[in-house]
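WARN retry 2 of 3 for item q-0093 after timeout on previous attempt; input resubmitted unchanged.
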Amino acid sequence: MRLVTWNVLHGCSPDDGRVDLDRFAAAVRSLDADVLALQEVDRGQARSQGADLTAVAAEAMGARDHRFAAALVGPPGAWSAAPEEGRVGGPGEAAADATATLPAAAPERLEALVDPGPREPAYGVALVSRLPVTRWRVVRVPPLARPVPLVLGRPPRPVVVHDEPRVAVAAEVATDAGTLTIATTHLSFVPAWNLLQLRRLVRALGREVGPGPLVLTGDLNTGPRRAAWVSGLTGLAAGRTFPAPEPRTQLDHLLGRGVRASDGEVHHLPVSDHRALGVTLHLSS
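OK item q-0093 returned
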């Protein structure tokens, strides 16, 4: 099976600053993935024409199953943490206030994922699969509760930033060779904190999956050596993915256990500031 991970920048092209749904769908089709992992995904946002980008990708792929997991709800500038399954929440609070309700010591939570359906505007991650999915799960990992000073931009300058809530969505995928769990996430941009999130996420997935084959994908905001070391998983593909026009580093990863990978490839597409990263997966015997 062909697995691809891609941070889609809400479907926007840095070349013209526009979201063109036909261009986004064509880019998805060009990847020819059996399972596509997406990050920075919009649903119902004005900046992406109110579209459900997960559904657009699923139609372009001819996928039979897809799920979106919201990390934030509301429009940009008025983000709130997405509510947990079974709880009601709404937009309006600043992200800094919403994240403060999740202390750093809070445990990661593994929940059954119910298809959220069309609700208020949201932003998060998604999995899209041509192969049958037998079960879905979501993992919520707390953000850093306090603001932190970072040096960002060009030219670099010191700024105080607030972390965002983070989420992962996991699918139990049925293949001809057996069942494989695939998860995707987008971790914090705060150095070191994203490594703690990664460790906690793998721990939560491990409790659910046990010793079975597992692949974790996504924009981890760290390099390949640290990603593999902290996760305890094997890097399945290598290649610079960011920034897309002239990539200098690999922020996007495919990490696994109980699988073999071949034909790793980096894809430069006319959408997003990240390149996509793909492999052909084989379940280990």
